[in-house]
Amino acid sequence: LGNALKTFLARTAISQAASEVLMHTVLSTLIAAVAWPVGLVALSDIIDNPWGVCINRSEAAAAFLADALLDRKHGQRPVTLLGYSLGARLIFYALKELASHKNG
Predict the structure, then answer these.
(1) Which residue ranges of the chain lie beneath pLDDT 50?
(2) What is the pLDDT of residue 72?
(3) Cα-atom radius of gyration of the chain, to the nearest Å?
(4) Buried b vs exposed e over 37-70: b needs ≥16 C-beta within 10 Å?
Protein backbone atom coordinates (compact mmCIF):
# COMPACT_ATOMS: atom_id res chain seq x y z
CA LEU A 1 0.00 0.00 0.00
CA GLY A 2 2.92 2.35 0.70
CA ASN A 3 4.17 2.28 -2.87
CA ALA A 4 0.67 2.70 -4.29
CA LEU A 5 0.10 5.68 -2.00
CA LYS A 6 3.37 7.31 -3.11
CA THR A 7 2.45 6.77 -6.75
CA PHE A 8 -1.04 8.15 -6.16
CA LEU A 9 0.32 11.26 -4.43
CA ALA A 10 2.91 11.88 -7.16
CA ARG A 11 0.32 11.51 -9.91
CA THR A 12 -2.09 13.76 -8.02
CA ALA A 13 0.55 16.46 -7.55
CA ILE A 14 1.47 16.42 -11.23
CA SER A 15 -2.17 16.39 -12.26
CA GLN A 16 -2.99 19.31 -9.96
CA ALA A 17 -0.05 21.34 -11.26
CA ALA A 18 -1.05 20.71 -14.88
CA SER A 19 -4.66 21.45 -14.04
CA GLU A 20 -3.77 24.81 -12.47
CA VAL A 21 -1.78 25.81 -15.54
CA LEU A 22 -4.59 24.82 -17.89
CA MET A 23 -7.22 26.56 -15.73
CA HIS A 24 -5.70 29.88 -16.72
CA THR A 25 -6.14 29.17 -20.43
CA VAL A 26 -9.06 28.81 -22.78
CA LEU A 27 -9.46 25.16 -21.76
CA SER A 28 -10.59 25.98 -18.22
CA THR A 29 -14.20 24.82 -18.74
CA LEU A 30 -13.12 21.52 -20.25
CA ILE A 31 -10.57 20.89 -17.49
CA ALA A 32 -13.15 21.63 -14.80
CA ALA A 33 -15.53 19.07 -16.32
CA VAL A 34 -12.88 16.34 -16.58
CA ALA A 35 -11.13 16.85 -13.22
CA TRP A 36 -13.62 14.91 -11.06
CA PRO A 37 -13.72 11.69 -13.17
CA VAL A 38 -9.94 11.70 -13.51
CA GLY A 39 -9.58 11.88 -9.73
CA LEU A 40 -11.92 8.93 -9.28
CA VAL A 41 -9.99 6.83 -11.77
CA ALA A 42 -6.73 7.66 -9.98
CA LEU A 43 -8.27 6.67 -6.65
CA SER A 44 -9.27 3.30 -8.09
CA ASP A 45 -5.57 2.37 -8.26
CA ILE A 46 -5.51 2.29 -4.47
CA ILE A 47 -8.82 0.46 -4.15
CA ASP A 48 -7.87 -2.24 -6.68
CA ASN A 49 -4.32 -2.57 -5.39
CA PRO A 50 -3.22 -6.17 -6.13
CA TRP A 51 -1.76 -6.62 -2.64
CA GLY A 52 -5.02 -5.52 -1.01
CA VAL A 53 -7.02 -7.88 -3.21
CA CYS A 54 -4.73 -10.78 -2.30
CA ILE A 55 -5.03 -9.98 1.41
CA ASN A 56 -8.81 -10.11 1.19
CA ARG A 57 -8.70 -13.36 -0.78
CA SER A 58 -6.33 -14.97 1.70
CA GLU A 59 -8.78 -14.25 4.52
CA ALA A 60 -11.62 -15.73 2.49
CA ALA A 61 -9.56 -18.82 1.60
CA ALA A 62 -8.74 -19.30 5.29
CA ALA A 63 -12.37 -20.12 5.99
CA PHE A 64 -12.26 -22.86 3.34
CA LEU A 65 -9.04 -24.26 4.78
CA ALA A 66 -10.51 -24.27 8.28
CA ASP A 67 -13.62 -26.09 7.03
CA ALA A 68 -11.49 -28.67 5.23
CA LEU A 69 -9.50 -29.28 8.41
CA LEU A 70 -12.62 -29.49 10.57
CA ASP A 71 -14.28 -31.94 8.17
CA ARG A 72 -11.12 -34.10 8.23
CA LYS A 73 -10.98 -34.21 4.44
CA HIS A 74 -7.33 -35.20 4.84
CA GLY A 75 -8.25 -38.26 6.91
CA GLN A 76 -7.03 -38.91 10.44
CA ARG A 77 -3.42 -38.00 9.67
CA PRO A 78 -1.77 -35.07 11.42
CA VAL A 79 -1.39 -31.89 9.37
CA THR A 80 1.56 -29.52 9.26
CA LEU A 81 0.79 -26.06 7.92
CA LEU A 82 3.65 -24.04 6.45
CA GLY A 83 3.28 -20.70 4.76
CA TYR A 84 5.24 -17.69 3.69
CA SER A 85 3.85 -14.19 3.11
CA LEU A 86 0.20 -14.50 2.10
CA GLY A 87 0.29 -18.24 2.77
CA ALA A 88 1.27 -17.52 6.38
CA ARG A 89 -1.55 -15.00 6.60
CA LEU A 90 -3.99 -17.59 5.26
CA ILE A 91 -2.80 -20.12 7.86
CA PHE A 92 -3.08 -17.55 10.65
CA TYR A 93 -6.70 -16.76 9.80
CA ALA A 94 -7.50 -20.45 9.35
CA LEU A 95 -6.16 -21.15 12.84
CA LYS A 96 -8.21 -18.26 14.21
CA GLU A 97 -11.28 -19.79 12.57
CA LEU A 98 -10.45 -23.20 14.02
CA ALA A 99 -10.02 -21.66 17.49
CA SER A 100 -13.38 -19.92 17.22
CA HIS A 101 -15.06 -23.24 16.34
CA LYS A 102 -13.36 -24.93 19.27
CA ASN A 103 -14.48 -22.20 21.69
CA GLY A 104 -17.96 -21.86 20.19
Answers:
(1) none
(2) 86
(3) 23
(4) eeeeeeeeeeeebeeeeeeeebbebbeebbeebe
